[in-house]
Design brief:
- Helix content is about 50%, strand content about 15%.
- It contains 18 helices and 13 strands.
- The protein has an 8-stranded mixed sheet with strand order 6-5-4-7-8-9-13-11, sandwiched between helices. Strands 1-2-3 form a 3-stranded mixed sheet. The chain has a two-stranded parallel sheet with strand order 10-12.
- It is flat, with a radius of gyration of 29 Å.
Length: about 450
């Protein structure tokens, strides 16, 4: 979707390089990349006939238009989100058809098929006996693929695993039935293997896994729809969280809110301020030392104050829509009540001012687990203060959200996994940018209200 802004012609003639927004579906990077590449060259050449005479100087620049691309549903264009889930279908198709394609043919070549048929069993029972073990093999393959996808490639998964198992049974059974059909037709194992590949290669080529489906000739699309559509689920979208599409659409229609940020001079607080301004929000940074904020923006207001003074907070927080607190101790090993005291002052000031939305930063070490217990013991003074802060927030009557991330890093990414009332599995770290993105998303999308949320990479 190409969005041409207001005053496009005016800005173009002034040489201001107007921004054109392109929203692209990034779940299929191959198909999207071709379209974006064409757009890039198109914008460089489309206006050549118009940029003449006094406007010729614009044509000689690096480009009269600034192309901005928003990659929806998979903003970081992570290829494993697209490839790894699709491999499940590829592996199941190849192995299930091949192993059953050889089953009856092998019995016929060895001369044991007659022995099976002479036994007091029905032909259908013989077929069931051939198919059922391979169904179990298929589920073992699915389990291995899901484990690898989650722990090795970090593909996010949401939804019902049971439902996936039920749907996979239909897919496995269909491929096994196709293999059994080949094994009854083939005269030897070589013919069975050839039939298997004759089925497998068109299935992969026409399914859209290797090449963009909409980029194929029309006859190939029709053939793929007729022959392969029932076995061609859209694996690309299955790899993403169930509400990723909705979240992306909401993100494009964000409401502008007035944010009150506590702890804005910290490393996480700076990320919150920068991302909030990038999302066009009005931001008030309530800090002890305003000189530590070098960022200048017309939508940023810096106020000096004490986060433990209820009255100062009350005067400052009025007429705001939400409060984000990223406070953390300077020394995690020393006894402190800073988080508790600031939570008391903040929640009281918000209730007096009528500001109801609050998102605060805590720690994943409060979740159960051996590693969390060890971390809580080592940093027991900070954990005690943090847990006391959470109790104050939960009893405040506000619309609160408590974010519990693991070890914070300075890595450059904003994606995250989240799980209410529990830590995401195998979540050992998270970037500060991703923490900021989660806190802002929670306010914009009104998610996780009165919930403790574990977040991780």
């Amino acid at each position: 979707v190409v969005n041409i802004p207001e005053n496009f012609s005016r800005d173009l003639l002034r040489g201001d390089r107007p921004e054109v927004l392109v929203e692209a579906d990034a779940t299929d990077p191959v198909a999207t990349g071709t379209a974006l590449g064409s757009l890039g060259s198109l914008f460089d050449t489309a206006l050549q006939n118009d940029l003449k005479g006094s406007l010729a100087t614009l044509a000689g620049t690096s480009g009269p238009i600034d192309l901005r691309v928003h990659a929806l549903y998979n903003p970081e264009v992570v290829t494993q989100y697209n490839i790894v889930p699709g491999l499940m279908g590829v592996i199941l198709t190849m192995t299930m058809v091949m192993i059953t394609g050889l089953a009856i043919t092998r019995e016929r070549e060895r001369g044991t098929m007659e022995n099976l048929l002479s036994m007091p069993t029905r032909p259908s029972e013989v077929l069931i006996g051939k198919i059922v073990p391979y169904i179990l093999v298929g589920y073992i393959q699915i389990t291995v693929i899901l484990i690898a996808a989650s722990f090795l490639f970090h593909v996010p998964m949401e939804g019902s695993i049971i439902l996936l198992g039920v749907v996979a049974l239909v897919f496995i059974a269909a491929n096994l039935a196709m293999g059994i059909t080949f094994s009854t037709i083939a005269k030897n194992q070589l013919q069975a293997v050839q039939m298997t590949f004759f089925f497998f290669l068109p299935s992969i080529l026409l399914s859209g896994f290797m090449f963009p489906f909409r980029g194929m000739p029309r006859w190939a699309q029709m053939l793929g729809e007729v022959l392969l559509r029932p076995c061609r689920p859209d694996y690309r979208h299955q790899a993403l969280p169930a509400d990723a599409g909705l979240n992306a659409m909401i993100a494009m229609e964000r409401l502008i809110v007035k944010l009150f940020v506590i702890g804005a001079t910290g490393r996480t607080g700076r990320e919150v301020v920068q991302q909030a301004l990038a999302r066009n929000h009005q931001v008030t940074a309530f800090v002890r030392s305003p000189e530590n904020i070098s960022l200048k923006n017309e939508r940023l207001t810096v106020l000096k104050g004490n986060v433990m003074d209820e009255n100062e907070l009350f005067r400052a927080v009025q007429n705001h829509d939400a409060v984000i607190s990223t406070l953390g101790p300077r020394e995690v090993f020393k006894p402190s009540s800073m988080l508790h005291d600031s939570a008391v002052a903040t929640t009281r000031a918000m209730n007096r001012a009528g500001v109801k939305r609050l998102v605060v930063l805590s720690a994943a070490a409060h979740f159960p687990g051996i590693l969390n217990r060890i971390a809580s013991f080592i940093m027991r003074n900070h954990m005690r203060d943090s847990l006391s802060m959470e109790a104050i927030v939960q009893g405040s009557g506000l619309d609160w959200t408590i974010a519990r991330p693991p070890r914070l890093t300075q890595e450059d990414y904003t994606t995250y996994r989240s799980r209410e009332d529990a830590a995401p599995k195998m979540g050992f770290s998270l970037s500060r940018k991703a923490v900021a993105a989660f806190m802002l998303d929670g306010i914009e999308q009104k998610k996780h209200v009165r919930k403790i949320v574990g977040i991780a990479k």
